Input
Amino acid sequence: MHSSSVSPASGAASNASANDLEAVARKGGKLKRMAVRIPTYMADIRENPAWLPMFLLARTIPGRRAHWLTAKKSNGAIDNLPTIFMGVNAETAVDALNRDGIFPDLQLPADITQEISAFGHATPCFGNFDRRIEFTASDHRATEDRLGRPILSGHHFERALDCPAVLTVQRDPLLSEIARRYLGAQAQLITTRTWWSFPTKASEADRSLASLDKYHFDLDDWRMLKFFFYLVDVDQGTGPHVFVRGSHNKRRMKHQLTLLVGHPADEIIDYYGKDSPITLTGKAGSGFVEDPFGFHMGTVATEKPRLMMEIGFGVSKPSRRRFHGEPVLR
Ligand SMILES: O=C(O)CCC(=O)C(=O)O
Output
């Protein structure tokens, strides 16, 4: 996996009225971003009322530290079981996670990559999280033309589990071992998803639902770890993932005391430093693991679609719907 430092443009306005306009646009954007997520949040509270205190407190450093004290030490029971990830040392990965919030050196075997990639190309996905928009990736443009609207993402939802190679990765002991060493022995699988991100001109609301083009952190559980794998070659034109090193255990007070999880690039760069964001590019099969409390984002693909898989671990009972990355739409 290649990682390079980036300094996303922050777009400084040159006079007062431009500043005012930018402030109004930001406010409108914030409201839209919150609005698209509200139905999902309400469904989460109904399914599991314990989600609400997590959602309010896990964004604060004292709240997180207190919860981290409940982590039980992994008993090593699954250490050294056979894994498809040859040559990866769990301790090295966990050291990098503790230090930077990310370990960028995972690699799927070629046959597994090939199988998941073939599955992702052949299996119909759901556009913009909407189960009424079903198409195969090769029909993306035709589907946009037919519907007369941009389609930014295509999720396979529960269909991902029909692919045996996805299950092989999901159940690999090395991933569980890294999760147990980092999150504690309570670590359990909470997500498995495969999805496309397509090059298109998407609305603010669609980009927000797809977690694209805005630094944010995830609040689906008190402590989380996400393994991501690219299933096509990903370069600058394929919407690479970006992670802000060191942002997993340090947070500006302003960002702890707001309900928003997304924040403007300039605020992130000012606080964590211009060299802290890394852009992750790599061949099909390359992967990385990150603590998603650290600021991160996908970027919108400009040239080629990206196919990606996520295997996520947390410490609380998983939500059935979130397991495959499905939000509730209005
Ligand atoms: O698409 C990506 O690279 C980012 C996904 C993301 O931000 C998330 O899962 O929270």
About this structure: Residues 197, 211, 218, 241, 292, 296-298, 310 surround 2-oxoglutaric acid (CB under 6 Å). The mean pLDDT is 89. The CA atoms of residues 60 and 260 lie 12 Å apart. The first helix runs from residue 16 to 47.
